[in-house]
Amino acid sequence: MIKITSKIFPIFILVWILTILNSCIKTKDVTLFQGNFIDSTKNLSKDYDFIIEKNDILEISLLSTNKDANELFRTKFEEGRSVVSYSSGVAAKGGFLVDINGNIEVPYIGKIFVEGKNRQKVTFEIEEKLKDYIQEPIIQINLLNFKITILGEVKLPGTYTIPNEQINIVQALGIAGDLTTYGNRKKIKIIRQLNGMHQEINIDLTKKEAFSSNTYYLKQNDIVYVQPVKAKIQNTNNQIFIPFVSVASLVLTAINLVKLLSQ
């Protein structure tokens, strides 16, 4: 019995060491933007514009010679003005709410359907309709509740309000405190809602091709999920396994000590 136990012990320790080594994270798996430099003339941010969705809150400002009309639009926003930052997660207040039917209620015009349209198109439509009441109106539209949610292996997970309506995946991970050691840089999942359907998109941040991806810029209400690497799961299992190894080691040491004393 003692001889068998003595032979099993080194094998047991070897398996444990191999498990530890296998759980180590390689440098190439955590280094971002690897590969040759990509000289791309494609400007992804140049043509970027958000698409208006239900429950969006819009700031609509009017510039015209009609001060009373200007005040109607300004008051709608000023009543609920709040200061937000990247990390606040504060919901926007005031503004024009896109209702469940995709409409907003605009002074002078009444209801106007905006869901699924970009800012440029809605701006043009409102300006054209206001020309019946106001001379040379100029409309500016901003999205007040542009928010994204970042989950998984990041240091500061949560929902973030983006004040400038535009953010890319690298900036998003930056405001979430960067990825943890166990974050899988090769499997960043973006969950996006399009036309009532959920779409899943994967980005590999270890490759420079991520910069030229159409999903490099996030859209409002995107969910970013950083998956864990296998090493985290293995290390979690090791934490469970280590106490058993320690107990086994003490038992085997005691058996060997008894063997030596009995000789």
Could you explain how this protein is built, in words?
This protein is α+β, with helices and mostly antiparallel strands and 263 residues long. It has three domains: 2-25 and 231-262; 27-47 and 146-228, Outer membrane lipoprotein wza fold like (Roll); 57-143, wza like domain (wza like fold), CATH 3.30.1950. Helices cover 32% and strands 22% of the residues. The chain has five helices and ten strands, in the order αβαβββαβββαβββα. It has helices at 2-22, 67-78, 119-130, 169-175, 230-262, and strands at 57-63, 96-97, 103-106, 110-113, 138-143, 147-152, 158-161, 183-194, 197-203, 223-228. A five-stranded mixed sheet has the order 7-6-10-8-9. Strands 2-1-5 form a three-stranded antiparallel sheet. Strand 6 (147-152) and strand 7 (158-161) form a beta hairpin. 19% of the residues are buried.
What portion of residues belong to β-strands? 15-25%
Please write the string of helix (H) and strand (E) elements: HEHEEEHEEEHEEEH
Count of runs of 4 or more consecutive helical residues: 5
Low-confidence stretches: none
Mean of residue pLDDT values:
77
Structural class: alpha+beta
Shape, please? elongated
Q: Which fold name fills CATH's third level, the topology of the largest domain?
A: Outer membrane lipoprotein wza fold like
**Annotated CATH homologous superfamily of the largest domain:** Outer membrane lipoprotein wza domain like
Major β-sheet, in short?
5 strands, mixed
The CATH architecture designation of the largest domain is Roll
Classify the helix fraction into a percent range.
25-40%
CA-based gyration radius? 29 Å
Kindly report how far apart the N and C termini lie.
15 Å
CATH first level of the largest domain: Alpha Beta
As for the number of domains, it is 3
Q: Total strand count, please?
A: 10
